[in-house]
Amino acid sequence: MNGTFSATDRFEAERPGLHAVAYRMLGSLAEADDAVQEAWLRLERSDVSEVRNLGAWLTTVVGRICLDLLRARTTRREEPLPEQDGSVRLPDPVVTELRRVDPEREVLIADSVGIALMIVLETLSPAERLAFVLHDMFDVPFDDIAPVLGRTTVSTRQLASRARRRVQGAAPAADTDNARKHGVVEAFLSASRGGDFEALLAVLDPDVVARSDGGALLPSLLRRGAADVASQAITFARFAAESRIVLVNGTPGVVAYADGRPLSVMSFTVRDGRVAGLDILTDPDRLAGLGLAA
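Predicted structure:
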């Protein structure tokens, strides 16, 4: 490392990957930005002349920052479980247009990090989440993760293994063919707009679960079963002046608008050609921060 310019240049090259780490750890785009900025400040204050792998060093710094933020959330009890007492807290969605390439956002959601998986990550303890995200998603060795957690390498490996079992048990495999998923989402949207209850039942898994996060001022909703979800979808569609298919965390989803402002972002889990999960962000404050143009 030679000089401030060199450090700045290297940091900017690592920024997309660091942002991806922070997003997976925190589930918040704004907090991920803050974590990456804090990593830059720590780099400025550090002597890294002897650091041979700056990317690895920065990754563990971001991991430590995110770990502190997650522990602070737990202390303040700000992070309810996805279905605790009927409350629903969805992670921030990464929304992109179908035909627009955004390399930085593609890094954020590489490896099929969909909303459903992000929700499962939110149920892990801070230490489990760090061990799983850094090792299983970014190939950071356990020897490098252990000092961040203040644990032994063996203990850190056990944390990641426990988290892996929970993730695999709570997030069963979904369809991966985006063209097929696009067709399912299109059928759902068409039936909702047309008020076609039977067509909606045909496209919904009988045991579908729909979660809606309305933020602090709006009630959260958790609905189960095709009939209940279909009825709610038809009711909700009446309020949307416009709905269009986009990519939500890299998979087909829907953004709905009313009076020129975003009304909701819908993320779909499609399994065996039917909608098995529907995660809906309706919090107006968080929607306003996503930069969704009508």
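Summary: The mean pLDDT is 87.
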